[in-house]
Amino acid sequence: MLSILSASIAFAPDEARLFSQKPGAVAGTMSVVAALIMGLHTWLRLGERAEVHRGLAAKYATTRRRIELLKAFPPATLDEFRRELGEIQQRLDEHARGAPETPWWSKWRTDRELKREGMKNRWSELCGDGTGGDGCPCQRLRNEAR
Prior knowledge:
Elements: H1 2-11, H2 23-44, H3 46-72, H4 78-98, H5 104-116, H6 122-127, H7 137-145
């Protein structure tokens, strides 16, 4: 869009120019901005990331539907139920292996929100007393996440 606009500014007749003083500078600046945006889009691989997330969402949706069916029509025996739960656990583990890594800042923000809501913080669950001293596992995990 920016490329089209900059080209129309650069090649428009003098009477129709929106920016009459320095159309070349405006067109050049807009072209550079368009190139930077496209380069950033390519470097971040946003399309590829979105495709990975869409595929993973479809897999999780399939597993969720399987759980809903299991709730609606439970197996006749406890052994069958445990077998079904094991299969669901295996599917979820496979999905997690194929999932992109969650950024550390997202984990930190989620923990902060859970703590604010009064829910038990998973870091404090690891160290037991929630002190967060240098020797506790939660402090080591926080340091590794950074």
